[in-house]
Amino acid sequence: MAASPEPTTVLACEGICCHLPAEPRPVQVLHGISFSVSRRTSLGIVGESGAGKSMLIKTIMGLNPTARITGTVRLDGTDVASLAEKKRNAVIGRKVGIVFQNPMTSLNPFVRVGRQIEEHARYHLGLSRREAKERAIELLRVVGIADPEECYSFYPHHFSGGMKQRIMIATALACEPDLLIADEATTALDVTVQKEILDLLQVIQEERQMAMILVTHNLGIVAGRTDEVLVLYGGHVVEHGPTDRVFATPRHRYTAALLSAMPQLDQPAHTRLATIPGQPPNLANAPKGCPFAPRCPVATADCHETMPVMTVSADGRHRFACHFPVAAGAEAAP
Amino acid sequence: MSAGALPYLKAISTRLLAGIPVFILVTFAATALSSLAPGSAAQLILGENASSQQIAELNAAYGYDLPVWERYFKWLGGVVQGDFGRTLFSQQSVAKLLVDRAAVTFEIAFLAMFVSFIIAVPLALYTASHPGKLLDTVLRSIASVLLSVPTFVTVVLLAYIFAIVLRWLPATGWENFSDDPLANLWYVTLPVLCLAPHQTAYLYRVARGEFLATLQEDFVTVARAKGMPLSYILLRHVLRPSLPQVLTVLGLSMTYLLGGSFIVESYFAVPGIGWTILSAVNSHDFPVVQAILSLTVAIFVVIFILVDLGYTLIDPRVDVS
Question: Which domains does chain B have, with CATH numbers?
Answer without folding.
Answer: 1-89+284-321 (no CATH), 101-282 (1.10.3720.10)
